[in-house]
Amino acid sequence: MPSSERSGVDEGCVTAETAVVLPVLAIVAVSMLWGLMAACAQIQCVDAARAGARAAARQEASADVVAVAEQAAPRGARVSVGREGELVRVSVEARSAGIGGLALDVGAEAVALAEDRVGGAVESEEGGVAERREDGAVAGG
After folding, report:
1. Inter-residue contact 111 to 53 (CB < 8 Å)
2. Where is the segment annotated Disordered (predicted)?
3. Burial 41-64 (b: 16+ CB within 10 A, else e)
4. What integer pLDDT is reported at residue 133 of this predicted model?
């Protein structure tokens, strides 16, 4: 078979292969972008929760803690602040970018020790600072 006859048959195969491969490559690229956007939203939630926990540990007002966390969080994130004994807990939840069912719920939670408890110092009823001794008694004030 002469080479000129064979090359005419092969030309159609290349076009068919390209028609199949290009949509697959586009789907892979879009999937990678979607995953990257979801990972970025998760990282923003972690950063926002940490920033909020640091602010809450410094005994800032709840509204200020929420504002600090919302500033670092993705758009539309829900921030909740709570205290459990000596610990402050900040949770941030958000919806990652995506179309319809492709959007994911992402979130993070950070916990910090309240600074009024760090180093054994406690606030006395008179407003002064007292030192907690090793035996648990409070001295000073």
Report:
1. yes
2. 122-141
3. bbebbbbbbbbbbbbbbeebeeee
4. 44
How is residue 59 written in tokens? 């005994």
Extract the tokens encoding 108. Answer: 């993070």
Q: Partners of 92 in the beta sheet?
A: 79, 108
Q: What is the mean pLDDT of residues 80-84?
A: 92
Question: What is the distance between the terminal CA atoms of the chain, rounded to a whole angstrom?
Answer: 104
Instruction: Name the pTM for this structure.
Output: 0.67
Confidence of residue 2 (pLDDT cuts 50, 70, 90): low
Cα 42 to chain centroid distance, Å, stands at: 3
Find tokens 């648990």 and name the residue: 136
